[in-house]
Amino acid sequence: MSQPFPFCSDPAVFTEDSHGSSPRDWPASSLANAEGEFAVKEQLEKLVLQMYRSGIRYSESVREFQSVFILTVLREQRANQVRAAQKLGMHRNTLRRIIRNFELDIRPLRPSTRRPPLSERAVPVQTKARAR
Questions:
Q1: Rounded CA separation 79/108 (Å)
Q2: pTM (2 decimals)?
Q3: CB–CB of 71/104 below 8 Å?
Q4: Is 112 exposed, middle or buried (0-12, 13-18, 19+ CB in 10 A)?
Q5: Does 14 have pLDDT greater than 50?
Q6: Which of 3, 21, 54, 92 meets the CB 3.0–4.6 Å disulfide criterion with 85?
Q7: How far, in Å, CA of 87 to CA of 94, rounded?
Q8: 1.10.10, 3.90.76, 2.60.510, 3.90.550: which CATH number matches 57-110?
């Protein structure tokens, strides 16, 4: 099997954490998480290689990755931009600017039914409490 990250020649990067412990010393949950992260990194590397070989420029690939990543988070947050910005670790105005600059259409992500404006809502009938 080829090395998963050819740009990194130090295999210790993938076998030890920052404290020098090896994966066999990690708890089972950490091992599962590390394996999952490794699988994601390996998939990402394959995707990058495929994009490179098909002639996609770096700037185009970064832009596409950012737009897909942001749309995915927005979809998970049901188009709530405040919550999506919090998940992305950015200010909501920054997210709005990115959406505008990338010309992302987020209308399909929004729930189909919206609350009617206050002027169109039925007014609840209030009853007076009876004195005993």
A1: 9
A2: 0.58
A3: yes
A4: exposed
A5: no
A6: 92
A7: 13
A8: 1.10.10
- What is the dihedral sign for C-alpha 118, 124, 128, 129? negative
CB 48 within 8 A of CB 7: no
Q: What is the tens place of the pLDDT at every residue in 44-103?
A: 899 999 999 999 999 999 999 999 999 999 999 999 999 999 999 999 999 999 999 999
DSSP assignment letter at 21? -
Say which amino acid occupies 51. Answer: M
Cβ within 8 Å of residue 94, ≥6 positions away: 85
Rounded mean pLDDT of the chain?
Answer: 79
CA–CA distance, 35 with 24 (Å, rounded to integer)? 12
What's the CA gap between 61 and 47, in Å, rounded?
Answer: 10
